[in-house]
Design goal:
Low-confidence stretches: none
Distance between the termini: 66 Å
Structural class: alpha+beta
Strand content: 15-25%
Mean pLDDT: 97
Shape: globular
Radius of gyration: 22 Å
Number of helices: 14
Number of strands: 14
Length: about 450
């Protein structure tokens, strides 16, 4: 819908309020409900939004060492612009009109810390090269019979999963909670976040949802909205959904894998497919994959942004630990899927459910384009068998601090995303490390309280 159609819709339906949101550096949706008049008045000039949303962490604690904003700038307003193409209504909130915004113009030029703006810039670069980027993200997440208050009261201990036992791909558990599951799938579709598939994963109360593929910017919008939408719908059923990468050391982690392919501009030809190749991979596909493998060590925090992310990236936990690729192999970092021409694609398996979709897709697309622009050769052979044992091409860093320092000092990361973004983003990741380092964990209490 264009501006005229949206204005007419609001007036004809006597709508008095509109909701909008954008993703911060952690992928948390921040936003407001505003009067319809304010919405219409701001369509050209934007809406003033305090830039502290890029100056604090996921717990609203302000960073102590970022240049973009802080006490030294006075936390001024920055102009947030709504993307009218993202219009939808929220079916579980009386169909209130909803829009996604960001802090940039149509080409993504604007606030360097804005994740959606970064993805817009990378997307334009891709399209200027003559490619249509088609992406999708899938998420695993755990569900609990808890509320925000019960979590606080129980100090995040002795949580009750939605269902017991390990029931991967079982239809029993979705049937047991049919009201929640059916409403979730149906209302996500109404919210223009359609699922290609939905099922249980292995673990108590864990589900997986694969979002339908679309143009990369829409795919990232859908993925960001998916996480918040799932939480909001779950609330209405007395359920809490968690997208932590690894909430329990004894259970599998939660992935946020990204599927991607490049198509002709008219979207009629999948440029990743080549029937004549033994692996059905085009040279473009191989260059794209080579770029991702080469760039991975330089941009790892965009795929693994939290302390907890690295608890998932361990051997034998359905998440990669080595810089490897293969065809249809879920133990490698990159999985080539070549079952048919229309669905030939690359799955980047490093990201967890805790990732920011805009940054994940910007990282994947930019590093893939790096391989194409530099005509990188896919010299690393595909892994046969267990990818955890194949360390010939290196391993993924074991913690956020090392990964963030690698990115902070990387000329490759700065070439991909610019100095300003890399500086800001890595400072926020090092901040996470500092917050963790000064905390006293349950593990320390149990291990040292009495015996030491």
């Amino acid at each position: 819908m264009n501006e005229h159609q949206i204005t007419a819709y609001l007036q004809e339906n006597n709508i008095q309020k509109v909701k909008f949101a954008f993703a911060d550096i952690d992928g948390v949706l921040r936003g407001k409900i505003i009067h319809t008049k304010k919405f219409l008045d701001g369509l050209k000039s934007g809406y003033g939004f305090c830039d502290v949303v890029f100056g604090w962490d996921s717990s609203d604690v302000v960073y102590d060492d970022v240049k973009l904003t802080g006490w030294h700038t006075g936390y001024p307003d920055k102009a947030c612009h709504i993307d009218l193409s993202t219009f939808r209504t929220v079916p579980w909130q009386d169909d209130i009109p909803f829009f996604i915004g960001d802090f940039s113009d149509a080409d993504g030029k604007g606030l360097s810390a804005c994740p959606r703006s970064l993805l817009k810039r990378i997307t334009k670069e891709c399209e200027d090269l003559g490619y249509h980027p088609e992406f999708a993200q899938e998420f695993e997440w755990f569900n609990f019979r808890e509320t925000p208050q019960s979590l606080q009261d129980k100090s995040f201990t002795n949580l009750e999963p939605l269902t017991p036992g390990m029931f991967g791909y079982s239809i029993l558990r979705t049937s047991e909670n049919a009201d929640f599951c059916d409403r979730l799938v149906d209302q996500l579709a109404e919210f223009n976040v359609p699922l290609e598939g939905f099922h249980t994963e292995t673990g108590p109360g864990v589900y997986e949802g694969a979002i339908m593929h679309s143009h990369v910017l829409e795919a990232a919008d859908r993925a960001a909205l998916f996480k918040t939408a799932v939480k909001e719908i779950a609330y209405q059923h007395g359920i809490m959904a968690s997208f932590m990468a690894k909430w329990n050391e004894s259970l599998p982690g939660c992935g946020g894998h990204v599927h991607q392919s490049l198509w002709s501009k008219d979207q009629t030809e999948n440029l990743f497919h080549n029937d004549a190749d033994q692996l059905k991979m085009s040279e473009l596909h191989k260059q794209y994959l080579a770029g991702q493998m080469y760039c991975l060590p330089h941009i790892l925090p965009m795929y693994a942004p939290t302390i907890n992310s690295f608890k998932r990236l361990v051997e034998g936990a359905w998440a990669p630990t080595t810089i490897t690729w293969a065809v249809e192999n879920r133990t490698t970092a990159f999985r080539v899927i070549n079952s048919s021409k229309g669905y030939t694609r690359l799955e980047t398996r490093i990201p967890g459910a805790d990732t920011n979709p805009y940054l994940v897709m910007a990282a994947a697309l930019a590093s893939g384009l790096y391989g194409i622009k530099h005509k990188l050769s896919l010299d690393v052979p595909p892994t046969t068998g267990n990818g955890y044992l194949n360390m010939a091409n290196g391993s993924i860093r074991p913690n956020l601090f090392e990964a963030a320092m690698d990115m902070k000092n990387s000329t490759v990361a700065k070439e991909l995303f610019g100095d300003d973004f890399v500086d800001h983003f890595t400072q926020t990741r090092l901040w996470e490390c500092k917050q963790f380092a000064k905390s006293v964990t349950d593990w320390e209490l149990k291990r040292y309280f009495e015996i030491i």
